[in-house]
Structure formats: C-alpha cells, structure tokens
Amino acid sequence: MTQSTQMPNRTNRAIRRYIKLYLLLIRTSIRSRMQYRFNFALGSILAALIQLSEFLMVAIVLAKFGAVQGWSVYEIGYLFAVMTFSKTLYRTFGDEVHHLESYLVEGELDQLLTKPLPVLLSLMPRSFRLMLGEVIQGTAIMIWAFGGMLGSGQITWWAIPQTVFAILTGAVVLFAIGLATATCGFWTTRISMLQNMTEDAAQTAARYPLTLYPNWMGGLLLTAIPVGLVNYLPALYILRGELGIWVFPLLAAAACLALLLALRFWTFGMSKYQSTGS
C-alpha cells in the first residue's frame, strides 16, 4: 500500500475514533448529570419557567391589545419556539465554539493544536451540554401554538415535518454565525461583546416578526446576521402560505452556504492564530 493511500485511511480511522469519542463523551456527560438527578431536574424546571415568563409577558400584552403587525400571539409563539429549538441544538453540540474566548485567553487552544484531528473537531466534543430547560420551554410553547393554529384551521399537520426541517437548518445557520463570531477572536481575543450582538441580541430580535423593524435592520437579520432564516422566513410559508415551496430548498442552500463560509473563515483565522506562549 502506497503512502498516498495510507493517508486517507489514517484520516478515516481518526474520524471514526472521533465519532466514538464524541458519543462516549455524550454518555459520560449524561451519566454525570444524572448523579444529581434532583438538582438537574430542579435546575431544568427553573430554567424553563424563567424563559417561559419572558414569552408569557409578551402573550399577556398581545391578549390585551391584539395582534402585532398582523401576527397573532400563536404565530409569535411559533417564532419563539423555533428559535429556542434551533439554538438548543446548536448549543448542545457546539457549546465550546461559543466559549472559544476562554481557550484563547488561557492558552488552552495550543493544546488542541498538538492533536492529530483538526482543531474544530477536537474542540466540539469537549463539552456536551444538556439543555432540558430550553427543551421544556420550546415544547410547551410549540404545543400551545400548534394547538391554537390547528384548531383554527390556519395550518395542517404538514406543518410539523416542515417545522422540523426549519429547526434543523436553523441550527446549522446559528452554528455558522457562532463559528464566524468565534473566529474573530483570533484577531481580537475577546469576543463576548461581539457575541452579544451577533448571537444574543440578534436571536432575541428574531423572536418577533421582522416587519416590526426598519427595513435596513430586517435586511441585516436576513443577510449579514441571517437569524431571520431560522424562523421568520419559514414561518411566512408554513403559517401564512406566503412565498412558495421553494423556501425549503432555499433554507437548505442558505444553511450549507453559511456553514461553508464560516468554515472557510475559521480555516483562515486558524492560519493567523498566534500562540499565547503560555
């Protein structure tokens, strides 16, 4: 066997080992958290209640004054839930990307450079985050929103698989945004303030219809920081029948493009990384 054929085989074996390691880390993380089941359950319930309270305040206002820009309380609940599920998927499997700043500040990224796998593949399995509270919150709001819209005949059961597709593509988009934001840390080191804008503030804004905002801001949330692709754009078709069925291939293509651009930016950032020397 020539050296040229041995290299792909080594890479394939390394990737298989990575996948096994990742699954092992997931099982280990779940077991460790289940050692303190009461604390885990109580923390999850409290997290769900705290986040539910934010939507309940909006729902109370809408119940009092009616729809916002023609969007009912059920539709806004749908936007909330889809964003919650997509963010939960992203942060469950890619939470360490969001915390890259600590690796840069403390010099831990240098340790990953010595491993045989690409840095990103070595980084992501280091933490598997169970976000049961967010799952409870998203599920409660989604069931309530679907119940209201199915009862009124606004949507059919086809909206469920369409929503699952939107959540999956949305998670990819959010991961791409998070990865691109983290990559900026190779030049700035500190990225928490930037994350507040590109992730926290943008995701909060996208929980509401983009028609609430000025045109320039709505365009920004669909292009430069495309959180509107996570829930608003699919909701236009799934809930309102606007646009067309082409929304789904567009979402898939946009998610793939966003991920590709983020990975290319990450590769470029890695080439510019300078060790802390610590």
From TrEMBL:
Keywords: Membrane, Transmembrane, Transmembrane helix. The chain crosses the membrane at residues 40-65, 71-90, 130-151, 163-187, 216-239, 245-266. The keyword Cytoplasm does not apply. InterPro entries: ABC-2_transporter-like (IPR010390). PANTHER family: INTEGRAL MEMBRANE TRANSPORT PROTEIN (PTHR36833:SF1), SLR0610 PROTEIN-RELATED (PTHR36833). This is ABC-2 type transport system permease protein. The lineage of its organism: Bacteria, Bacillati, Bacillota, Bacilli, Bacillales.
